[in-house]
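TA notes, week 10

Several of you asked for a full example with nothing omitted. So below is the full record: structure tokens for the whole chain, then the designed sequence directly under it. When grading your own attempts, check the secondary structure regions first.
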């Protein structure tokens, strides 16, 4: 959750980040102004990146219930409104289909985070051990080969993050 502030202090100990809550002391914050409320959100550069590229990753919105069990929505990546996510995933898919260029490191990290978001969604009921293995291994994927191998394993379980 973002913290919105009434104040707009200069860089320093009072300039807290809306995302991580830590002071922004040595770089200029990225500031957002909400004209309606007059409040401000501000970010470390990295925190802004995280906030913009990892939408909903740790916050699952409870969806409808079925037989007493809450169903959770898993968003499709094409529905995301965050501008850096869609091109990254698209470049991963296109490269897999033989099109250049190779996805950048940032692209691959975004794809990895997307996989992690999907695989940790609390809606899967497939075999527990294999699921937990994928939930662990997704954290360590470092290149396109590993991402593809991981994707194949997920598909074998019937989970298609793309
Ligand atoms: Zn921060």
């Amino acid at each position: 959750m973002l913290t919105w502030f009434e104040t707009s202090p200069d860089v320093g100990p009072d300039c807290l980040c809306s995302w991580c809550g830590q002071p922004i002391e040595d770089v200029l914050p990225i500031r957002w102004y909400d004209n309606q409320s007059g409040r401000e959100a501000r970010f470390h550069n990295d925190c802004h990146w995280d906030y913009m590229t990892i939408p909903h990753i740790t916050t699952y919105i409870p969806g409808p219930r079925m037989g007493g069990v809450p169903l959770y929505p898993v968003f499709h990546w094409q529905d995301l409104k965050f501008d850096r996510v869609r091109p990254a995933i698209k470049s991963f898919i296109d490269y897999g289909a033989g099109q250049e260029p190779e996805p950048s490191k940032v692209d691959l990290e975004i794809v990895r985070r997307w996989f992690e978001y999907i695989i940790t969604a609390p809606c899967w009921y497939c075999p527990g051990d294999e699921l937990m293995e994928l939930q662990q291994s997704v954290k360590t994927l470092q290149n396109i080969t590993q991402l593809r191998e991981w994707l194949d394993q997920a598909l074998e379980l019937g989970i298609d993050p793309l």
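Residues 115 and 161 are 6 Å apart (CA to CA). Use that as a sanity check on your answer.
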